[in-house]
Amino acid sequence: MENAADVAEPANAEAEPVSWCPSGAMDRPESLVLGVRSQDDGSVAYLDEPVPASEVLGMVPEGIEPRRILRFASHCESSCANRVGTECGLINRISAVPAPPHAAAVPRCHLRPRCKWWQQTGVEACHRCPAVSTLMLADDHLGNLVADPATTQEQLDSWIASAEHTAQA
Ligand code: SF4
User: Fold this and answer.
1) Gap between the Cα atoms of 87 and 151, Å rounded
2) How far apart are CA 148 and CA 169, in angstroms?
3) 106: CA distance to ligand 1 center in Å?
4) From the CA of 63, how far away is ligand 1's center (Å)?
5) What is the rounded CA–CA span in Å between residue 89 and residue 149?
6) What does DSSP assign to residue 27?
7) 54, 60, 85, 129: most buried, per Cβ within 10 A?
């Protein structure tokens, strides 16, 4: 098997190190499988070693959207709709949602040394990361709100406040 870490490094040794998106694309030349959504609650079990997405996509049964069962990582790009300056707005929105009462343990993760979310938010990102789905389902209103780059902090605060109000009613 090709060494994915070697594929990932920039060709120019003097270039800035590339940060990686842990909720990335599955079809880029550098795309890697980050983990498998195999737990009972759909959260991610992380692979010990990076595996090129191109080696796995052909094994996904026809009719199944690969992002329903796998999480992919690819380069963090300045053209991404989630970029806010040099930051990733997605992990900022995810972090703005109150953490579940029992936060997930920090997983062992092969991406950490080059992960944009880790670089930006530290261990807080790793607590939230296993529950992140790159493919949002139609009935996941909060997930879709968080995933939308146009969502403002005010909109998130409003949704959270209304959810808390509903829970207390
Ligand atoms: S946020 Fe943490 S657990 Fe998720 S990919 Fe980055 S380093 Fe790994």
Assistant:
1) 15
2) 28
3) 8
4) 29
5) 7
6) S
7) 129
Number of domains in the chain: 1
Nearest atom in ligand 1 to the alpha carbon of residue 129 is: 4
- d(CA 91, CA 38) in angstroms, rounded, equals 22
Element holding 44 (H helix, E strand) = strand 44-52
For residues 166 and 70, what is the distance between their CA atoms, to the nearest angstrom?
A: 33
135-156 pLDDT, tens digit per residue, is 666 667 777 777 788 888 888 7
How confident is the model over 10-61, as pLDDT tens digits?
444 456 679 999 999 999 999 999 999 876 777 899 999 999 999 999 999 8
- Give domain status of residue 157, yes or no: no
**Assigned domain for 148 exists:** no
The answer to whether position 156 is within a domain reads no
